[in-house]
Amino acid sequence: MALLEVHKMSVNFGGIKPVSELDLQIEEGELIGLIGPNGAGKTTVFNLLTGVYTPTEGSITFNGERIDRLKTHQIVKKGITRTFQNIRLFKQMTVIDNVKVAFNNRLKYSPLEGILHLPRYKKEEAWLEEEAMKLLKIFELDKYAYELSMNLPYGKQRKLEIARALAGSPKLLLLDEPAAGMNPNETNELMQTIKLIRDQFNMTILLIEHDMNLVMSICERLVVIDYGMVIARGTPSEIQNNEKVIGAYLGQA
Ligand SMILES: Nc1ncnc2c1ncn2[C@@H]1O[C@H](COP(=O)(O)OP(=O)(O)O)[C@@H](O)[C@H]1O
Ligand SMILES: [Mg+2]
Questions:
Q1: Which part of the chain is the ABC transporter domain (predicted)?
Q2: Ligand 1 centroid vs 110 CA: distance in angstroms?
Q3: Which pLDDT score, from 0 to 100, does residue 122 have?
């Protein structure tokens, strides 16, 4: 069984179906691109996978378990984390604290121990700091660890979001247009970092992008959606020459 198995998943908002009978399988360790024109339903797929919306039909099975009726925090605990199309950091918190809070549900000390600064708390704090710093290093953000996240340049804020999503060792990482608003250099660098995360951590990644050229270089498989339905699946070279895909992109305003 694949790590993620989505079977005929639909969502209906008063007659509008942003996602319709979507099938998707992702094997452990795969880096898959979910692409499609603006408004195709890509972000809605993420909202369904993470419990923001509940599918009106179909099923989502993750790691052998049905998760389509679970709440977001329960799904996070099962090992699915995400980033957002629009950055959602704690702006008034430091860079490292943004990562540390994401580790929260792995902590073992009780609130009372925390208040009293008992030994277990101190040990866990040191561990937390170390783990957060390791993640920051991967994204070359360690030298900004104690700055407020809102003071980071835009491209680095995007990287911080990914670092935070990796806290707590998720099994599946969902990235929603992580390169949005970046310049071509930053974008290239980010794509290489995403590939590195997959290779180093054997992470499974589903990457949303509307610019298909961007994901061609790093994804081994692409799923293309338009009007909430899968219109093509295949390797980048298969997708590049697919008439339905070309049509969907040309049809965009
Ligand atoms: N809660 C909602 N209620 C009604 N329509 C929605 C809702 N969420 C998304 N949609 C619609 O679903 C369609 C797909 O949106 P979205 O998933 O954001 O597209 P993409 O991420 O591919 O650009 C859009 O037409 C959007 O307006
Ligand atoms: Mg979107």
A1: 1-252
A2: 41
A3: 77
